[in-house]
Each structure stands twice: as structure tokens, then as C-alpha cells.
Design brief:
With about 625 residues, the chain is of the alpha+beta class. The protein is built from 20 helices and 33 strands. Strand 2 and strand 3 form a beta hairpin. It binds guanosine-5'-triphosphate, oxaloacetate ion and manganese (II) ion. The site of guanosine-5'-triphosphate has 20 residues, from helix 10 and strand 18.
């Protein structure tokens, strides 16, 4: 029996017709094989019609994976108490022979496929399987990558409808030419609260050869939403092979003088400020998590891979995040996950308004002071609790940029992480190489609640992408360094640090200060302001920042604040170079030689400056005051 005949037997008439209309034998093979294997009771195929999308949403409620909240179109979803973040330990790249690749979690492909197939055999008995089609990037563009998702979680499918562009018609248009990604997900057996039960059998296996990702016994979005971090492993591989960039980056427009629009991307690790930067209310958001950057006629053009936001809700408050606050309180379609709910209303940590002392949250029935099995007090919402909403509802979205099949020209690229004591709040690289090596490849950040495991540990995290890396780091960096050669004018590279602290652990900056750094970077892209040359790049002059603080935030910015924040901390910077160099020399292997050269040059500059100015160098000294 061929695939299409098999499908005719497996699906009812209406669903079968939807599949038959797609002229792609490879797709048919894949579907026939997996539908047979998963043994769902029922299969629903989603086209791009609003009715099919509505069906999925309804099913998320019907099966109890989501519950209605008081505000129309708002629902809440819970993940298991121990399934609240990405599971790095059980996420593996399947490679032939299980070849060890430094920093990547690999597993023998045959063995991995055998294991995951075993876990998935008949896993959908008694359940409904949703077959969904989406695309990454704008449709019918240089960025487009079609993808098919199989899942028994209506919540996952619903999330994808909010976050991605529909792709059924695109599959139809592309026919047998579609080079598509495949995702197979099952939440596995559920408990009374409709959360995945068999977490010990949670597995996320990425088959790089077949461009297929399998995920089982988990519901948390980062482990299950196929087109998000699962597809990301596959797009990194494609990008490195084809000479473009697939990055963990927001994409935003910074508005310069006289209506000038300048686009920036920014790579910071999970929970380190991508969404909150892209959401600065007087600028415009294009995307908050994943960007493709492709060289087109010598210009780096960026596009948002997604069309929605799976954002962190903790700390969202009316003062710092007025737009998100507004959206979260309007009747547009939103899925809240792992928040506190009382009388049909969602609440979260640090929301800036009083919240109830009891309700339901990710731990079930909750009251203030409740402890978990490990004796830890359970906060009202999980730190990694999130909201899922489409960008079309954002008053500050740059819709033209979001939908442009040619993307937008990238003027600047920013790297940043959680760093309490080393980098200044903002600086500009001397050139592409300098930025890629000392800002991107040298990125370190304290771990956060976005992954399971200990928080607050300084960790090597090049380009904020290490969790998702799917090719040897050296190859990835080679591609990055070579990218410049494809461009007539490379974007400027910047580094930011929002997380500097003083001796007592207090933040040196306010959350909105980033709005000033953005304006400064915008001016620098166009050569509109001068800067101070330091051993680690260009930093802003006090006078320019004082003016910008006044203009942007209506705040006085003192010389003392500036000096404290922008002091060049030579011992910390040298120690960092040591750490990074050692990692690349001893742990990574096969690294482009120029990386070491660039680090060595930076070290020399720091040593020379130390001779002259001492360990902690005031920016005023460097400016020659
Ligand atoms: N101290 C401080 N915290 C910040 C700042 N900006 C963001 N945060 C905190 O960073 C966390 C959220 O960062 P997001 O912007 O949502 O994270 P993201 O980079 O989009 O993360 P993912 O969606 O996980 O990839 C929240 O806990 C914020 O309060 C800042 O300027 N200063
Ligand atoms: O993928 C997720 O779980 C959410 C996210 O953006 C990240 O962790 O970087
Ligand atoms: Mn992310």
C-alpha cells in the first residue's frame, strides 16, 4: 500500500481530502508512517481557514488543557510543576555514531530514534492528533521555511497559531519542492490537571539528518512548540551550510532624528531582556526572540521568524511595560501559562499591584506560604510563567517590517547578557570581527529560570545561543566571521549590559535606561555622535548621554552615575579574556585562528591602559578631561 492509500484508510474523508490536495509524496510518506505509529483515535488536519484554527482553540478548552478566564479570548494553561522550563539534559541532537561535539548534547542517531519511537508507539491512543502547517519567516520570501507539526496537544497547536504564519497554502503552492521541517510531539499521559505525567520519560530529540524533531512527555512551550526552539536547531544548521544567520535575536526599529528608521537585532540569553528591549514603548517591535539575517545584494536583511510573542510575564508592570500591560488587559486572544488565577483573573509576580493570597497556580491549589515537596516556598506564579499573543495586537508593532518579504536592513546588532561586574552598559565594537569575537563569541551570562537547573551561575553562552547550537561552535563562528564578506556594509556591532550591580548587589541601572542606550546606538550607526575610544571599543561621552537621558527619560543623569557605570574594569575584563580564551583553546577545538588574535589584541590594549591609568579607568580620563 502506498502512502496516500494508507492515509485514505487512516483519515476520515474530509481530513483526507485536505492532505490529498497537497502534492508532496514526501509529506504523505511522513504522515502515513507517523499517524500509523502514534495510533490516535482521531486526526484533524488544519488548513489556513479561520474555522480550522477555531476548532483547535475550542479543543484546547474541550480537552481541558486550557481554561477560560473572565476576559473574553483569554485562557490559562498549566504545565506540570516540574515541567516549567527547557529541559537541557533530555534534549539531544541525534548524530550518526553519537559523535561527541564540545558543548552540544549529542546521542547516537539510531539509538535515539529507536528510543523515541518506542516511547511514541501508540502514545496517542484515545487522543486526537492535530496536523498543522506553518511557515518560518514571511511567506513566499527568501526567508520562508515550511514546517509540518503533529501534536496531540491542542494547547501546542493553539500556541503555534498565535505565534506562526499559517502554511497550508504555502505547502500547496510549493508542492513537491517544499523543503520542510517536521515536528512530532506528544504530551504523553496526563494527570488530573491535564499536565504531562511521565516526566522521567521526557525526551526532546533533534534529528539533524532528516530535519525532524521529536518531543514527548512534556508540554512546556520551549520543549514542545515545534517552530520555536526546536526548529531553531534546524535553522542554525541550514544557515551555517548556506551562509546566512539564524539567531536568538529580537528585531526592532529605533526611531532616529527626523523620522529616520534604523533596525537593530539583539541577542541576549533567555530572560535577559530581549522582549523588554524590543518593547520599549517609544520604539517599534518587529520580533522578540528569533531572527533570520540573510545577505541580499550585499545588504544584511533581517526578518522575524515568528509573528507572535511567547513572553515572560514576571515583572510586567504598568510603569515599565505600559504596552504589554495594556495588551494583557484587553480582550485579544492570549494564553497565560503558569500564572496565579483567582476568580477568573490572572496574577503574576512583581506585577506592581496587590495580588490575592490564594488561588490556583502551577502547583495546583495555592495559598501564600505553600511549600513544594523540596520545602521551597512557592511564589504566586512561576518565574518562567509566560503569555502568548500575536504581534498584530501590539500598537507599537512595525507591521510593514514584519510582513515585508524582503525583510529590513539591519543597521546594528547587539549582544548582551547578565553580567554583574565586567561590561559597561553599552559600547560599540571597532569593527565586525572585533564585535563578533569580543562581544558575541565571548558572551557570558548568569543562568536563569528559563532552563531547569541552578540559577545565577556565570556561564559561557556565545551569541546567547549555546542551548540551541546544533553545529560545532568553530563552524558557526567561521560562518559569522565570513558573513561580513558578503556585505557591502556590515551592520555595526554593539554590546550592552543591563545587569551591572554595586558592592551591595543593587542594580546600577533602571530598566528603562536601555531606551537611552538604543538612541545612542542609533546615532552611532549613522555617525551622528562622537565616542570615547577605550581598550574594549567605543563608549558614549557623558555629555551625549546626559542630553539623551533628559530627552528620552526626562531624567537627570549625573557624572557620578556615568563614571560608575562606564568605568573600564581592567582586572575583570582581563579575567574574562582568560576564561574565554581557555574555553576556546581547550574545550571547543577547531576555532578560527583569528578569534585568538582578536582576543590577544584586546588583552594588549587592556594591559597598556592599565600601565597608564591603573586597574579601574574612569571614562573621563580616557576622554582626556
Ligand atoms: N535589572 C534588570 N532586569 C531586567 C532588565 N530588562 C529586563 N529585565 C528582566 O529580565 C527578565 C525578562 O527578560 P525578557 O526581556 O522577557 O527576556 P527574553 O530575552 O525575551 O527571554 P526569552 O523569551 O526567554 O528568550 C525579567 O525578569 C525582567 O525583569 C533591566 O534593564 N534591568
Ligand atoms: O523557548 C523557550 O522556552 C522560551 C524562550 O524564548 C527561551 O527560553 O529562550
Ligand atoms: Mn528565547
Amino acid at each position: 500500500m502506498n502512502a496516500i492509500e494508507k492515509l485514505e484508510k487512516l483519515l476520515d474523508r474530509e481530513q483526507f481530502e485536505k492532505i490529498k490536495a497537497l502534492n508532496n509524496p514526501e509529506l504523505h510518506e511522513f504522515l502515513a508512517e507517523w499517524i500509523e505509529w502514534l495510533e490516535p483515535d482521531k486526526v484533524f488536519v488544519c488548513t489556513d481557514s479561520p474555522e480550522d484554527e477555531a476548532y483547535v482553540k475550542w479543543k484546547a478548552l474541550y480537552y481541558g488543557e486550557e481554561k477560560m478566564l473572565e476576559t473574553p479570548n483569554h485562557t490559562v494553561h498549566y504545565d506540570n510543576y516540574y515541567d516549567q522550563a527547557r529541559d537541557k539534559a533530555n534534549t539531544k541532537l541525534l548524530v550518526p555514531g553519537g559523535k561527541a561535539i564540545p558543548f552540544l548534547n549529542t546521542k547516537d542517531r539510531d539509538e535515539g530514534l529507536r528510543e523515541i519511537r518506542e516511547l511514541m508507539k501508540g502514545v496517542m491512543k484515545g487522543k486526537e492528533l492535530f496536523v498543522c502547517f506553518f511557515v518560518l519567516g514571511p511567506r513566499n520570501s527568501v526567508f520562508t521555511i515550511p514546517a509540518v507539526q503533529l501534536t496531540d496537544s491542542a494547547y501546542v497547536a493553539h500556541s503555534e497559531f498565535i505565534l506562526y504564519r499559517k502554511g497550508y497554502e504555502e505547502f500547496k503552492r510549493l508542492g513537491r519542492n517544499a523543503r520542510f521541517f517536521r515536528f512530532v510531539h506528544s504530551e504523553g499521559e496526563l494527570d488530573d490537571r491535564k499536565t504531562s505525567k511521565n516526566l522521567d520519560k521526557r525526551r526532546i530529540y533533534i534529528d539533524l539528518l532528516d530535519e525532524t524533531v521529536y518531543s514527548v512527555n512534556t508540554q512546556y512551550g520551549g520543549n514542545t512548540i515545534g517552530l520555536k526552539k526546536l526548529a531553531f536547531r534546524l535553522t542554525i544548521q541550514r544557515a551555517v551550510r548556506e551562509g546566512w544567520l539564524s539567531e536568538h535575536m529580537f528585531l526592532m526599529r529605533v526611531n532616529g532624528p527626523d523620522g529616520r528608521k534604523t533596525y537593530f537585532t539583539g541577542a541576549y540569553p533567555s530572560m535577559c531582556g530581549k522582549t523588554s528591549t524590543a518593547m520599549i514603548s517609544w520604539e517599534n517591535i518587529v520580533g522578540d526572540d528569533l531572527s533570520f539575517i540573510v545577505p541580499v545584494n550585499g545588504v544584511a536583511r533581517g526578518a522575524n521568524v515568528e509573528k507572535g510573542v511567547f513572553g515572560i510575564i514576571q515583572g510586567v508592570n504598568p510603569e515599565d511595560d505600559p504596552i504589554i500591560w495594556e495588551i494583557l488587559h484587553s480582550p485579544v486572544e492570549i494564553i497565560f501559562s503558569n500564572v496565579l488565577v483567582k476568580d477568573g483573573k490572572p496574577y503574576w509576580n512583581e506585577m506592581g499591584v496587590p495580588i490575592p493570597d490564594e488561588g490556583e497556580n502551577h502547583s495546583g491549589k495555592w495559598w501564600r506560604g505553600k511549600k513544594d515537596a523540596e520545602g521551597n516556598e512557592i511564589p504566586p506564579s512561576h518565574k518562567n510563567a509566560r503569555f502568548t499573543v500575536s504581534l498584530e495586537h501590539f500598537p507599537n508593532v512595525d507591521m510593514e517590517a514584519l510582513e515585508n518579504p524582503c525583510g529590513v536592513e539591519v543597521g546594528g546588532m547587539i549582544f548582551g547578557g547578565r553580567d554583574k561586574d565586567t561590561w559597561p552598559p553599552v559600547r560599540e565594537a571597532f569593527n565586525w570581527r572585533h564585535g563578533i569575537v569580543t562581544m558575541g563569541a565571548a558572551l557570558e551570562s548568569e543562568t536563569t529560570a528559563a532552563t531547569l537547573g541552578k540559577e545565577g551561575v556565570r556561564a559561557f553562552n556565545p551569541m546567547a545561543i549555546l542551548d540551541f547550537m546544533s553545529v560545532p561552535l568553530g563552524e558557526y563562528l567561521r560562518n559569522y566571521l565570513d558573513f561580513e564578506k558578503k556585505l557591502r556594509k556590515a551592520p555595526k556591532i554593539f554590546a550592552v549590559n543591563y545587569f551591572l550591580r554595586d558592592e551591595n548587589g543593587n542594580w546600577l541601572n533602571h530598566k528603562l535606561d536601555k531606551g537611552v542606550w538604543l538612541k545612542w546606538m542609533e546615532l552611532r550607526v549613522h555617525g551622528d555622535v562622537g565616542a570615547i575610544e577605550t581598550p574594549i571599543g567605543y563608549i558614549p561621552k557623558y555629555a551625549d548621554l546626559a542630553r539623551l537621558f533628559e530627552e528620552v527619560l526626562d531624567k537627570e543623569y549625573t557624572r557620578e552615575e556615568y563614571e560608575k557605570q562606564f568605568t573600564i574594569r581592567v582586572p575583570e575584563l582581563l579575567a574574562k579574556i582568560e576564561r574565554i580564551e581557555t574555553i576556546y583553546r581547550e574545550k571547543v577545538g577547531e576555532v578560527p585562528e583569528e578569534l585568538f588574535q582578536v582576543l590577544e589584541d584586546e588583552r594588549k590594549r587592556l594591559l597598556e591602559a592599565r600601565e597608564r591609568y591603573g586597574d579601574y579607568i574612569s571614562p573621563f580620563a580616557l576622554e582626556g578631561e
